[in-house]
């Protein structure tokens, strides 16, 4: 039996929504210090709806599959709904990830959150800081 589900392999081999959005309304970039993987999410937002989303992931297969699935799950959805997307939901939608690969799905949740925060910040939209917990970013030397 394979370690990875069919869905993980499918989204890894044929990732959806790969690329860059020119003049995005929000961008979120996060990384995992341990494995060094980086994920960047671009959002196009119209009337509070995610009209388009693209990603660039420099990382492992599970991170690519997680980005692909996460972007599919939020495309066309209101921002309020995208904010409720958890890494567990991403992993479940992929029919599971091995326990030691769960952190790859966390990157997807964090990158989406960071992109939405960027959009709110740029447009002076008020938000509940609880929706955007700090994740120990890598600013310190
Ligand atoms: Fe780090 Fe997958 S091994 S994101």
Written account of the structure:
It is a single chain. With 141 residues, the chain is of the alpha+beta class. It has one domain (6-121): Sufe protein. Chain: A (Alpha-Beta Complex). It is built from five helices and three strands. It has helices at residues 6-13, 61-74, 79-82, 87-93, 102-122, and strands at 26-31, 38-46, 49-58. Strands 1-2-3 form a three-stranded antiparallel beta sheet. A hairpin with a 6-residue loop joins strand 1 and strand 2 (38-46). It is globular. Bound molecules: FE2/S2 (inorganic) cluster.
Quick overview:
With 141 residues, the chain is of the alpha+beta class.
Key structural traits:
Sufe protein. Chain: A, 141 residues, globular, binds FE2/S2 (inorganic) cluster, 3-stranded antiparallel beta sheet, alpha+beta, 18% strand, 3 strands
Secondary structure elements and pairings:
Elements: H1 6-13, E1 26-31, E2 38-46, E3 49-58, H2 61-74, H3 79-82, H4 87-93, H5 102-122
Antiparallel strand pairs: 1-2, 2-3
Helix pairs in contact: 1-2, 2-4, 2-5, 4-5
Bound molecules: FE2/S2 (inorganic) cluster.
SSE ordering: HEEEHHHH
Percent helix, as a range, is 25-40%
Strands, count: 3
What is the first-to-last residue Cα distance?
A: 43 Å
For this structure, the CATH topology is Sufe protein. Chain: A
Low-confidence stretches: 136-141
Please tell me the CATH architecture by its name: Alpha-Beta Complex
Ions, cofactors and other bound molecules: FE2/S2 (inorganic) cluster
Described by its quaternary structure, the protein is single chain
Strand fraction:
15-25%
Form type: globular
Biggest beta sheet attributes: 3 strands, antiparallel
Mean pLDDT score, rounded? 94
């Amino acid at each position: 039996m394979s370690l990875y589900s069919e869905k993980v392999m499918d989204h890894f081999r044929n990732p959806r929504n790969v690329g860059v959005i020119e003049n995005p309304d929000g961008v979120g970039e996060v990384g995992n210090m341990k494995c060094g993987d980086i994920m960047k999410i671009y959002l196009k937002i119209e009337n509070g709806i995610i009209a388009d989303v693209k990603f660039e992931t420099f990382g492992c297969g599970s991170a690519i599959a997680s980005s692909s699935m996460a972007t599919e799950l939020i495309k066309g959805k209101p921002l309020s709904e995208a904010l409720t997307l958890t890494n567990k939901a991403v992993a479940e939608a992929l029919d599971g990830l091995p326990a030691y690969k769960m952190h790859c799905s966390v990157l997807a949740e964090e990158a989406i959150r960071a992109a939405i925060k960027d959009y709110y910040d740029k447009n002076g939209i008020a938000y509940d800081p609880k929706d955007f917990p700090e994740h120990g970013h890598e600013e310190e030397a």
